[in-house]
Amino acid sequence: MTKWFGETTALDGVDLTVGGGDVHGLLGPNGAGKTTLLSALFGLVLPDEGTIRLFGRTRAQAGAGWLDGVGGFVETPRFYPYLSGRRNLAVLAGLDGGDAASLIDSALERAGLDGPAARQKVRGYSLGMRQRLGLAAAVIRRPRLLILDEPANGMDPAGIRDLRTALRRVAADGVTVILSSHDMAQVEEICDSATILSAGRVAVTGRLRALRAVAPDSVWRMRTSDDGRALGLATELAGVKAAAADCSGLDGGGLVVHAAQGEMDGYVLALGAASVAVRGLELDRTPLEALFFQLTDGAAKTAHVEVHQ
Amino acid sequence: MSLAAEPWPAYDGRDAPATVGQRGRVAGTMAVWRVELVKLSGKILIRAIFMLSVIGPFLVVGFLNLQSATPGDTPFGQWVHTSGFAIPMTILGFGGQWILPALTGVVAGDIYSAEDHLGTWKTILTRSRGRGQLFAGKFLAAATFAVAVLLVLTVTDLAAGLAAGRSPVVGLSGQLVPAGHATWLVAVSYLSDLPPLLGFTALAVLLSVASRNSVVGIGGTVVIGVAFQIVTLANMPQWGQQALLSTPFMAWHGFWGAPAFYGPFLWSLLTCAAWFVACSAVAWLIFRSRTIEAAA
After folding, report:
1. Residues B41-76 pLDDT 10s
2. Do residue A121 and residue A262 come from a single domain?
3. Do residue A30 and residue A136 come from a single domain?
């Protein structure tokens, strides 16, 4: 699909298929078109060119039932501030019809908003509570497709862990999840496939394993007892590229190493054998992160990578 | 329990029944209407309006009893101390042209734009309801509020008048109208304001949809109502007067003549229908193709 907002091309020929039961990550820098794409999936934004099919049906074919079984939210979930959390869900259940109203209590409990929080007016909710209410609002739709835009925003670490587990679980039950996120670690942990958008175009899309295969090596930050010798050793090993880190960094000094996991293991063992102690080792960029920056940094915004599944 | 504690409720494989077919669309519209009424009932302002509509007329009666002067510049104003039936008609004549548009503007001028202000279009448009159902359901809720307020005012204004006295009242041709007939005429006069009230409801809906701003939706309705009244004072041709949406608020004058005449009321039906259809159609054309952006 293509979408223009005046002179701005928000989405430029985006062509994407997400398989049933997949957790699909949608990545991209600010302004890449992620929110516009998710909004279009919900019918909030109408394509200027192209079509969107949910479960094989276009909006024109499905009518008002197009979003049946589709739950989730775009940007921060919004509710009526003068109503309680429970009353807000009752309003939405009223729109949904069916047995949605009977699912409210369990959805609130599942989202950790039962008890006093359910009776509290939403104007007093924190960002994390509104995210949770957004998830509860998705639960009562009995979703077969979950569309979530930065769902972990404002959540505490326990909530984020719970959310990740829940998304893997619903996917295992056959629910398709489309997840927009800036959190690469979250995407790598829970997604089966991903798309990187850049300047409104699909820069790359595919299964995560296939994306890793075309991605640059991981980037590591390393501190050793003898950086000079460590640099020398790196030149002797295939698949390992090391350079002195920018000393202006807060942690200062050390090495920046580009290497895949296996080569990095060999490098660390070689350092040990050469009596160079590794005092610190940190994964700075995963392959997916490296691919993201390669495709979305400055001049590379029009880059496109072909992925063989 | 936590998000991951148990399997989520599974999709049951059926489209929501209220989305299928013509009956489904009607059912969907009624679902939106019910939801909007629930939302309205949760607003303090709406409760305050109904409370004021109930006690306001009695406060007016109390205020009139405290002073010997009469509001002589409005029809029936000079009779407020001699007949209780003059009181609801004075309220209708004095405030009908701007109080009623303002009251319907409070809901109709806000019911669409409030979703823009709160950023909740995204929330309700991502449920299983089409834009047509949402538009119609909201419109119905705004109209329901307008009708409900008018009915409450009809009953409470008449009750306040009856509480003040049930003497016959002098009609607009100087004839004496007995209490029984006067009761009927008061009720019919109030109900004759329904067509222009619904016309203003449609106008407020248009302002709310087009501006996406409740200040414009509510304030614009009041300002346009006042502007119509000012224009009425100008030396306009009769067809121009009849085309104004405020003129039908005075159509009840004919009911109180001897003999009664109904031409202005019938003409007002045409005027109000034209405004209603035009404003509703333009509002729908704007609404159906708009893009939903992030909240302001």
Report:
1. 989 999 999 999 999 999 999 998 888 888 877 888
2. no
3. yes
- Structural domain harbouring A250: 219-285
Structure tokens at B126: 């991502």
Q: Determine the Cα–Cα distance for residues B193 and B146; give it in Å rounded to an integer.
A: 11
Query: B141 or A299: whose pLDDT is higher?
Result: B141
User: Is A82 close to B43, i.e. CB distance below 8 A?
Assistant: yes
Based on the fold, state whether residues A204 and A228 are members of the same structural domain: no
**What's the pTM value of the predicted model, to 2 decimals?**
0.82
pLDDT in tens, A139-191: 999 999 999 999 988 888 888 888 888 898 889 889 999 999 888 888 888 89
Any B CB within 8 A of A156 CB: no
Interface of A with B in 235-294 (CB under 8 A): none
**A27 CA to chain B: closest CA distance, Å?**
19
Distance from CA of A57 to the nearest CA of B (A): 13
* CB within 8 Å: A92 and B130: no
Q: Where are the alpha helices (DSSP H) in A102-221?
A: 104-110, 116-119, 127-139, 157-172, 184-190, 208-214
Residues A89 and A27 in one domain: yes
Burial class (CB in 10 A: 0-12, 13-18, 19+), A260: middle
Give the domain CATH number at A199.
Answer: 3.40.50.300
Interface of B with A in 128-167 (CB under 8 A): 128-130, 132-133
Domain boundaries, chain B: 23-288
Of A213, A246, A269, the residue that ends a domain is A213
Do A209 and A227 belong to one domain?
Answer: no
Nearest to B125 among A42, A112, A170 (CB): A42
Task: Give B-chain residues touching A63 at CB under 8 angstroms.
Answer: 19-20, 130
Do residues A35 and A138 share a domain?
yes
Q: Which of A195, A213, A231 is the last residue of a domain?
A: A213
Task: Examine the domain organization and report whether A156 and A92 are in the same domain.
Answer: yes
Q: What ipTM score was computed for the predicted complex, to two decimals?
A: 0.81
Chain A contact set for B43 (CB, 8 A): 82
- A15 exposed, middle or buried (CB, 10 Å; 0-12, 13-18, 19+)? exposed
Specify the number of domains making up chain A.
Answer: 2
Q: How far apart are the first and last CA of chain B?
A: 35
Q: Closest approach of chain B CAs to the CA of A93, in angstroms? A: 9
DSSP string, B14-54: S--GGGSHHHHHHHHHHHHHHHHHHHHHT-HHHHHHHHHHH
Q: Is residue A297 part of a domain?
A: no
Q: Does B73 touch chain A (CB under 8 A)?
A: no
**In a shared domain, residues A129 and A227:** no
Of B63, B100, B70, nearest in space to B252 by CA: B100
Residue A184 to chain B, least CA–CA distance (Å): 21
pLDDT over 80 at B23, yes or no: no
